[in-house]
Amino acid sequence: MGPPPSTALHHRELAFEPGDPAACGAGIACVRQALADWRLAPDDIADAVLVAAELLTNAWKHAEGPEHLSVDHSGGVLRIAVTDRSPTRPRLGEHRAESIGGHGIFIIDSLALRWGTQPAGEGKAVWAELRTGSGA
Question: Would you say residue 1 has pLDDT above 50?
């Protein structure tokens, strides 16, 4: 079960089968298509796809895969949320640029207006909000 129903002007969502190895790719494609359909600027799309990829990948690496993806756009703010089965919340640690891996939350924190988590069933939803050039 994902986040509550959206009241956003634009909304897309996608549910994933447990352990689906194609989940990250399908989620990224869903976000890219939604933002293109909503005619967001290329720079906004690039940032949003990167944030979505990091959220989906973190769910895959740390929580047995994503369960649900939602994308909402209204009033110039894009919200991307990924629900997974783990109650363990991600945390922003010390970033080490020379490290291989471990950059996901740092990237999200750098690009997003704000991000956070909320309980979702047995797990959590990790969400990020980004400003877009379009107020629609």
Answer: no
Looking at per-residue confidence, does 64 or 83 come out higher?
A: 83
CA distances from 131 to 3, 18, 24, 59, 67 (A): 20, 31, 23, 23, 25
At a CB cut-off of 8 Å and minimum separation 6, what does 123 contact? 63, 67, 83, 84, 85, 86, 87
Residue whose token pair is 């309980």: 119
* DSSP state string for 87-130: -PPP------TTSSS--HHHHHHHH-SEEEEEEETTEEEEEEEE
Max CA separation in the chain (angstroms): 41
Whether 116 contacts 127, CB under 8 Å:
yes
**SS3 label, residue 1:** coil
Cα–Cα distance measured from residue 70 to residue 87, given in angstroms and rounded to the nearest whole number? 18
Q: Are 23 and 58 in contact (CB under 8 A)?
A: no
pTM for the whole structure: 0.88
pLDDT, one tens digit per residue, over 77-109 is: 999 999 999 998 887 766 566 666 555 788 899
